[in-house]
Amino acid sequence: MDDEHMQIGEVAARTELSLRTIRHYEEVGLVIPSARSQGGFRLYTETDVARLMVIRRMKPLGFTLDEMRDLLDITDRLDTAPSAVSTEREALLERMGVYEQAAARKIEDLRIQLTRAEDFATTLRTRLRNAPGEDTAARPAAHA
After folding, report:
1. What does the buried/exposed string (b/e) look like for 96-128 if buried means 16 or more CB atoms within 10 Å of the residue's CB?
2. What is the rounded CA–CA span in Å between residue 94 and residue 99?
3. Helical segments of the chain, H only
4. Strand partners, 42
5. What is residue 2's predicted lDDT score, i.e. its pLDDT?
6. What are the phi and psi torsion angles at 130 (to 5°)?
7. C-alpha–C-alpha distance, residues 41 and 45, integer Å
8. Whole-number Å distance between alpha carbons of 108 and 103
9. At what angle are helices 8-15 and 19-27 packed, to 10 degrees?
10. Greater confidence, 38 or 81?
């Protein structure tokens, strides 16, 4: 584990998460500060930052807090016991594979939604350009 500790403000800046969000993840047990300063401030390590980044990447894919907790448990167990019994290790890797497949499906769903959103924006731009009536030069430019 790293000896370098960061306060929550630096962690928030590095992860692009709010202080409130980081505190919430602590409250629900997803990430626990590695230490506390003499003044009681939360102190985090690079490992804690990496853990928060996993959470941050799972959130937009719609994973639940329980799913995040489960995946973090899997990665913790794989990291802390790399020479675990092969059957246990295989079971953990299989569970992780389920999350990888779920992430791939969710990403594909997001791609479809993005394509539809882009098509909608294109439709609106076309309608604006082709709208009958007033001078099109006086109309505000649509964003590309």
Report:
1. eeebeebbeeeeeeeeeeeeeeeeeeeeeeeee
2. 9
3. 8-15, 19-27, 46-58, 65-80, 86-130
4. 36
5. 46
6. -105, 10
7. 13
8. 9
9. 100
10. 38
Per-residue DSSP letters for 72-113? HHHHHHHHH-TT--HHHHHHHHHHHHHHHHHHHHHHHHHHHH
Q: Estimate the crossing angle of helix 65-80 against helix 46-58, to 10 degrees.
A: 140
Q: What are phi and psi of 92, to 5 degrees?
A: -65, -45
DSSP 8-class letter at 34: S
Taking the C-alpha atoms of residue 88 and residue 74, their distance in angstroms, rounded to an integer, is 11
Q: Which amino acid is at 113?
A: Q
92-142 residue pLDDT tens: 999 999 999 999 999 999 999 999 999 999 999 999 999 987 665 555 665
Q: Which residues pair with 6 in a beta bridge?
A: 44
Q: Which amino acid is at 4?
A: E
The pTM assigned to this predicted structure is: 0.77
Residue 71, token pair as written in the block: 């995946």
11 against 143, higher pLDDT: 11
